[in-house]
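== Protein entry: sequence and backbone fold ==
=== Local backbone shapes as whole numbers ===
==== Amino acids and backbone structure tokens ====
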Amino acid sequence: MRPGPLVGLLPLVVVIWGFVAVYLLQLAIDAGGQARQREKAVEEMMYFPSGRFMRPASIEYQVLAADIVWLRAVQYYGYHLMTDRKYEWLGHIFEILTELDPRFIGAYHFGALTLAWDANNPDEALQLLRLGMRRNPTSWQLPFDAGFITYMLTRDYEMAARYFRIAAELPGAWHVTQRWAAVAAGRAGSFEVARDMWLEIYQGTENRRIRELAVRQLRAVKVSQDTARLQEAVNRFREDRGRLPVGLAELVRAGYTVSLPEEPYGGRYYLEADRVRSSTPARERD
């Protein structure tokens, strides 16, 4: 029996249904910061179809569907970056997006970095990248990102070196990839390496959100490096003189450090009991 005319419209109906779900979610988020609005947004996201369902249903409209979901991903990320820093549905959104457009390398790249650092979920980030690597075996970007996340967050240096080597052998690989394979193989974890990696990520991308992420991480690395160096000076002062310095300025006067570094968030470093601290609370650091 020949399908009726309404059957042929089913894929379009499904896509429209998905877009309506996105629109309703945006309305719920735009409505404000009350707890119930947040719960409503989460509930609506639960009814947004998975990528595995959306892809066959929207076969004739995949480019349009992927564009809409990409816009939603950026909006969702930006909203939570500026508000509660909670990204429960970020992975779900990128699962939908990459199912609709499996060759969208930028989606894997952006999704993995934001999942790993902003959502504090490197495992889900690596899962997304491994999926992308299977679908796009000639892309150097995906194994490079996997190596970067593995090196910086999970600290599996052998696996990180393996990812970097895979990336280095692929066409068009970034010139730094071979060097990072050697660094990871040598297990050279340091503030300098972290700073150099983030600086190269910043310089190597045109994605504004990833550049902003790199700037945030560069500032965080500087705070960690500054406090570690000042703490070392405090410890040496205490060993030599049998007491703590009155303040960090005494370290300069006594020659234990040349100067006090500038705190990148506009605050200052200070001594609390025997520990060096930054005056900028963690929640206010970008």
Summary: The first helix runs from residue 5 to 8.
